[in-house]
Structure formats: C-alpha cells, structure tokens
Write a structure and sequence with these properties.
The protein contains four helices and six strands; from the N terminus they run βααβββββαα. The chain is an alpha+beta fold. It has a single domain, classed as Thiol Ester Dehydrase, Chain A. Strands 1, 2, 3, 4, 5 and 6 form a six-stranded antiparallel beta sheet that branches. The mean pLDDT is about 95.
C-alpha cells in the first residue's frame, strides 16, 4: 500500500531502462528519485536552474538505497517524497511503488546539502520554502 507523502509522481518504465534480465537497471532508480525531487521543487514554484542562478546549488551528500522488488518494462510506478531537516541537511525519504498492486519496490534516503556560491550554507531559500512541511 502506498504510504501518505508530501509529493508523489506517477511514471512508467521505458524499455531502454531494463537490463538483460528484463528488470530496471539499478542505476535508473537514482534517475527516478532525482527526477521526483526536481518535480517536487517545481511543484513548490522553484527550479534547480533558478536556484543555481541565485547562487544556491543543492548537492547529494549521501544516498542509501534498498531494492525490494524489481520493476519491468511497461510497469507504471509511483515515486513519493517525504522530507526532514537535520541541521543544514535536507533528508529526502523516497519510496517507489508499483502502481498495479501498490507494492513497495524501492526505498531510499537521500541526504542533500546546499552550497551557496561554492560554500556550505544553511539554505534559507529551502528552509522558507519547506517551512510548513518541516514544522509538522
């Protein structure tokens, strides 16, 4: 069952994302989660391009991944995000569920930090943007 989240995005596996075993190659899950984070920001009215233009560069500092079940070509899936903040780190808790049966196929914890003009920074832009999500 798909757990409640701050944001979700429905996507579909494309043939070229699968390996010889007929399952999604592990590296593509990083693409799915990154795309979901970008869409999450866009849903809040900000883009990575705008952030960069303003001197802010969010970067992944750490990512842990757990593969539960495979996705296959043509599978539709739901990629979800929850968020917490620890000091200057933003922790994205991301799950991927197969849409047909709502089974959990992948979980990850993505720790990001923000560089401001190349220096580690407690990003007020993101802190303000996520204030309501982080206060609950």
């Amino acid at each position: 069952m798909i757990k409640p989240s701050l944001f979700s995005l429905r996507l579909k596996v494309r043939d070229y994302e699968c390996d010889l075993q007929g399952i999604v190659n592990n590296a593509n899950y990083q693409h799915y989660t990154e795309h979901t984070r970008h869409e999450f920001l866009l849903s809040r009215g900000i883009s990575f391009a705008r952030m960069h233009a303003e001197g802010y560069d969010p970067v992944v500092a750490r990512m842990t991944m757990h593969f539960k079940q495979p996705l296959r070509s043509g599978d539709e899936f739901v990629s979800t995000i929850n968020l917490r903040k620890e000091g200057i780190k933003y922790i994205f808790l991301q799950n991927i569920y197969r849409a047909a049966d709502e089974q959990l196929v992948f979980t990850s914890e993505v720790t990001t930090v923000v560089l401001y003009h190349g220096k580690l920074h407690d990003c007020t832009l993101l802190r303000d943007l996520f204030a309501s999500e982080l206060s609950s």
